[in-house]
Amino acid sequence: MRLSLVEPAKAAALVFVAAILQVTIFSQIDILGGYPDVVLLTLMGIAFLRGSIYGAAAGFFAGLIVDTANLATLGVSSLLLTVAGYWIGRYGETTGRDRAHAPFVSVAVATILVQLGALILHYMLGDTVSAQRVLVDALPPKVALNLLLTLPVYALTRRLLALAAAPERATEVRLLG
Amino acid sequence: MSSRSATAVKRRVVAGVLILLSLVLITVYFREPAGGGLHGAQSAGATVLRPFEVASERVARPFRDAYGWFAGLIHAKSENARLREQVDRLTLLATQNATAAQQLADLKRQLHYVDSNEFPQDYEPVTTYVVSRPPSEFQQQVGIAAGSSRGIRLDDAVVTADGLVGKVSQVAHSTAQVTLLTDPNLKVSALDVNTQAIGLVGHGEGLGTLTLDRVQKSQVLKPGDPIVTQGWKYGPISSIYPPNIQIGYVNGASQSEVDLYWQAQVTPRVHFDSLRTVIVLVKKDRNLP
Fold it and tell me: What is the pTM of this model?
C-alpha cells in the first residue's frame, strides 16, 4: 500500500518540477525559433516506464499546472498532454519499451502531434494562429531540441522513478512470428 | 471478466474520464465570465504556484546573466562606438526637447488647456518581474509577480524603460497575466511623432515584429520615424494607453494601388523575448478617464 502511494507521488513531483521549469526557464530558451518542451519529455519518461494510466494522469496534471501558472485557458494543455501521455504509455506497453530508439520515436511523434493538436484546438477556440509560424518556424527546432534532451531527461526520470516496481507488461498485443 | 480485459477497461475509463474532464474544463472556462468559479480557482492556484516560479526564476537568473554577459562581450566594441555616436546626437536633442517642453508647459498654462491623463505623472508605477513566459507559440502572454493586491486592474498598460509592452489581460491576487504587443488580438492606436500620422500598431508576420496599419495614404510615413501611443480620448471613453509611450520606429512602408492604407513595418523598442522586469501603470485616480 505504501509503495503504491510513493510511485504516484514521485511521478507527480517530477511533473510539477518539470512544469515549473518549463514555464519559468525553458519557455524562453529560444534556439532558431523553438524551445524544448521538458514537460512532454518528462511525461514521455513517466508514461514509458509506468504505462498508459500513469501517462494519461501525469499529462492531465501537467497540463493543469501549466495552464494555471500561465493563466491560460484551463484544460487545453491537459487535453493535449493526456492524449500524448496515454499514447506514449500504450506505445511503451505494447511495442517500444525494450527498444533503444523507442523514446526518441515517441518524443518526435508526440511533439509533432501535440503541436498539431494545439494548432487545431486554438483555432477552434477562436485564437488567431499562424500555421506557418507554428508548423514551419517553430516545429522543426522544437523536435530537434526535444530529441537532443530525450536521453538525459529519460535517464533522469528513470533514475528518479527508480524502477522499484515492475512496469506494466503488455496485456493486449500478442507478437506473432 | 479476465484480469487482462479488466486492465484494458480500467485504462480506457481513466483516459476517457480525463479527456472528458479536460473538455469540460475548456468549455466552462471558455464560457464563464472573468470572475467565474474556474477563473477564481485558477487565480488561487496561480497564487500558490507563484513562490515556486519565483524560486525557479531566482535559481536560473545567475546562469542567464552569465550567458548574457558573455554574449554581450562579443558585440561590445561595435556597440560602444554606435552608442557614443548616439549619445552625442541625443544630448543635442535633449537640450532642444527641454526648451520645447518648457515652452509647451507655458503655452498650456496660458491657454488653460484641458489634458487627458499624462504619462508618467498621473500613474503609479508598479515595478515587478516576469515569472512565466509564453508556454507555446500560440500564446503571447507573460505572467508577472504582482496582482490586484498591488492595485493592478484589468487593461492597465504595461511598459519597460524601452517602451510599451502590452496590457494586463488577467488579474489574480498576487499575480497577473500581461498580453504582449505581439499578440494577434492586441491593437494599439499609435502616432508617428515626426509626421503626426495615426494608425494601429499590431503584431507583425515575423517573431517579435510589429506592423502599423490603418494609416491613410494621404499621411506620410518615413523610415526611422519614432512611433508612440496616441492616447486618444473621445467623449467619456479613452484609450487604455496613456499618450507618448514609445513603441518603436518605422522600418519600412509600402503601398499598392488597391490598398487603402499604408502597410508599415515597425521595429519594436522592447525586446519581447527577453523581458525580465516590467512596470504596470496603475492610474492614481481610477475615476479619471
Answer: 0.69
Q: Give the residue from chain A lying closest to B67, CA to CA.
A: A29
Query: How many angstroms away from the CA of A78 is the closest CA of chain B?
Result: 6
Do B60 and B97 sit in the same domain of this protein?
Answer: no
* CB atoms B184 and A128 under 8 Å: yes
Which domain does B53 fall in, by range? 3-65
B186 inside domain: yes
Are residues B165 and B156 in contact, defined by beta-carbon separation less than 8 angstroms? Answer: no
Q: Calculate how close chain B gets to A158, using CA atoms only, in Å.
A: 22
Mutate to test the interface with A, among B19, B20, B132 (most CBs of A within 10 A): B132
Nearest-CA distance from B198 to chain A in Å?
25
Whether residues A69 and B143 touch (CB distance < 8 A) is answered with yes
Residue B95 to residue B91: CA distance in whole angstroms: 6
Asked if the Cβ–Cβ distance from A71 to B137 is below 8 Å, we say: no
Q: Does a structural domain hold residue B157?
A: yes
Say if the Cβ atoms of B138 and A138 lie within 8 Å.
no
Examine residue B277 and state whether it is found in any structural domain, yes or no: yes
CB contacts < 8 A, A to B, total 141
Best of B137, B180, B274 to substitute, by most chain A Cβ atoms within 10 angstroms, is: B137
Using CB atoms within 10 Å of the CB of residue B172, give its burial: 0 to 12 exposed, 13 to 18 middle, 19+ buried. buried
In chain A, domain spans: 2-161
**B20 touches A: beta carbon within 8 Å:** no
Out of 2.10.25, 3.40.50, 1.20.58, 1.10.1760, select the CATH number for domain A2-161. Answer: 1.10.1760
- Predicted confidence pLDDT, tens digits, chain A (177 residues): 455 778 888 899 999 999 999 888 888 777 777 888 999 999 999 998 888 999 999 999 999 999 998 888 899 999 999 999 999 999 988 876 778 888 899 999 999 999 999 989 888 888 777 788 788 888 899 999 999 999 999 999 988 887 545 555 555 555 555
Query: Based on the domain organization, do B149 and B277 belong to the same domain?
Result: yes
Residues B137 and B101 in one domain: no
Residue B117 lies in a domain: no
| DSSP annotation of B241 | S
What ipTM does the predicted assembly reach?
A: 0.85
- Helix or strand or coil: residue B246? strand
Q: How many angstroms separate the first and last alpha carbons of chain B?
A: 70
Segments of B80-239 assigned E as strands: 123-132, 141-144, 157-159, 164-171, 176-180, 188-192, 198-203, 210-216, 226-229, 233-234, 237-238
The number of distinct structural domains making up chain B is 3
